[in-house]
Amino acid sequence: MALHQSLQQKLLQKLSPQQIQLMKLLQVPTAQLEERIKEEMEENPALEQSEDGHEDEFEGKDEFESSDDDFEPDGSEDEYDNIDISEYVQDGDDDVGDYKLRDENYPELDDSRVMPHKVETSFNELMLQQLGMLKLNDQQQKIAEQVVGSLDDDGYLRRDISSIIDDLAFRQNVSTNEEEISEIILQIQQFDPPGVCARNLQECLLLQLERKIDQGVHVELAMKVLEKYFDEFTKKHYEKIQKGLDLNDEQLRAIINQIIKLNPKPGGNVGDENKGENYVIPDFFIVNNVGKLELSLNSKNAPDLRISEGYRDMLKDYEKGTKKDKRQKEAVLFIKQKIDSAKWFIDAIKQRQNTLLNTMEAIMNYQYDFFLTGDETELRPMILKDIAERTNLDISTVSRVANSKFVQTEFGTYRLKFFFSESLQTDSGEEVSTREVKKILTDLIGEESKKHPYSDEKLTEMLQEKGYNIARRTVAKYREQLNIPVARLRKIL
């Protein structure tokens, strides 16, 4: 066996701890920044939040840089003897940080206000409450709880009965069979909201109609349609349904009205523990001040952080002392490490703030007409590279900002990602945003006759008449992205 020796050269990029920390902080939205700061303060007691709006900045000769010796002492006497803490105890540390000076860019928010949280019963809790009304023995109770726990958020039971049997046997030591579980499922299907614990959409709709069986013959006919012609109904092949059940147009309309009023996701309307996460806290505010756009950053993005006075006092006491044993010097090295870590975090917050402002300002200037008018047709084609070039930031940095941040305008609150789109060329050679085309496509479909909706071919012709050089498959792609069904499914009798 021959041995081969080769020489390879690799190019590696190593990020500093501060750069890694900044990248992580950029991805944190405003709603979670406060929690992230609390976590850092718990891990590092040298970092604290100022109550008077002032924060300490330590401006030493090597700003936010320390040698490895400061963090990993080898225990030698020389190392402890050479401890220099002058830059940590210098006067003037109480000066206000430059990035904390409040002006019109940082609107003061009333921190005394408490965000209300809705107290809601979760879907799972609602099911368990109703489960308590059934007369069940211990084994049936465990089975019922397992079935309820297997329900999806929308109220469906998509887990196979065989899998539920296995879970009960291996996790709860309960031996059961399909017949016993099926009986429990039938009882749970009588719970509110109607349609819960259904195995599929067809069963879900039928369960709801069963509750309305005394409301007339149209309900009975609707049940027959779902039982015998479900596929035809979903595909809107109404002619087959009419011939199969011998229905006239009026009867068919009444049946359709009965079915479309049903809830396809019975569990989706019930509040859950995560509803509070649906609230959006904007990271930026853009206001039109007499034709001039003004950008401001949410004040929550600029927290009042400083170095703990207690830690600084300990360093001052050490410097004034005459007897300095090894244990004291070890403690000082630990304190220096925590202070440096706190300074790194404060600087990362500062850089995060500057990066957010620079990125949003570039986006605002690029899409100036949209922020003035709110008209989506005014959106210009814009990709990450365009903003990266204007801000001298890396494309990945711009992407992190755009994916997790929101801006509040006079026309609504938007995710920054909304303003990025590809370009499409018109007949005149002008490049327009694909969002403009999608907006026009939405308007055309909104204005169509629902008895005779436009096909993709017709929509393509109409867009081409307006000067947009677009193919039919592209129209179909945009329509799907807008969650608009094909013409046949948009048709209303």
Secondary structure layout:
Elements: H1 17-26, H2 30-43, E1 47-49, H3 77-81, H4 123-131, H5 138-149, H6 161-171, H7 178-188, H8 201-210, H9 217-228, H10 230-234, H11 238-245, H12 249-260, E2 284-289, E3 292-297, E4 305-307, H13 309-320, H14 326-366, H15 368-373, H16 384-391, H17 395-404, E5 406-409, E6 412-415, E7 423-425, E8 431-433, H18 434-447, H19 456-465, H20 472-481, H21 487-490
Parallel strand pairs: 2-5
Antiparallel strand pairs: 1-4, 2-3, 5-6, 7-8
Q: N- to C-terminal separation? A: 79 Å
Provide the gyration radius in Å.
Answer: 32 Å
Count of DSSP-assigned helices: 21
Mean pLDDT: 78
Task: Return the string of H and E elements.
Answer: HHEHHHHHHHHHHEEEHHHHHEEEEHHHH
Shape: flat
Tell me the major beta sheet.
4 strands, mixed
* Helix-strand category: alpha+beta
Total domains: 3
Please give the number of β-strands: 8
Description of the structure:
With 493 residues, the protein is of the alpha+beta class. The protein folds into three domains: 17-56 and 69-107 and 280-420, no CATH class; 123-260, no CATH class; 421-493, Orthogonal Bundle (Arc Repressor Mutant, subunit A). It contains 21 helices and eight strands. It has helices at residues 17-26, 30-43, 77-81, 123-131, 138-149, 161-171, 178-188, 201-210, 217-228, 230-234, 238-245, 249-260, 309-320, 326-366, 368-373, 384-391, 395-404, 434-447, 456-465, 472-481, 487-490; strands spanning 47-49, 284-289, 292-297, 305-307, 406-409, 412-415, 423-425, 431-433. A hairpin with a 2-residue loop joins strand 5 (406-409) and strand 6 (412-415). The longest helix is centred in the last third of the chain and has 41 residues, at 326-366. It is flat, with a radius of gyration of 32 Å. It starts with 16 loop residues before the first helix and ends with a helix. Mean pLDDT is 78; it is low at 53-80, 91-119 and 272-277.
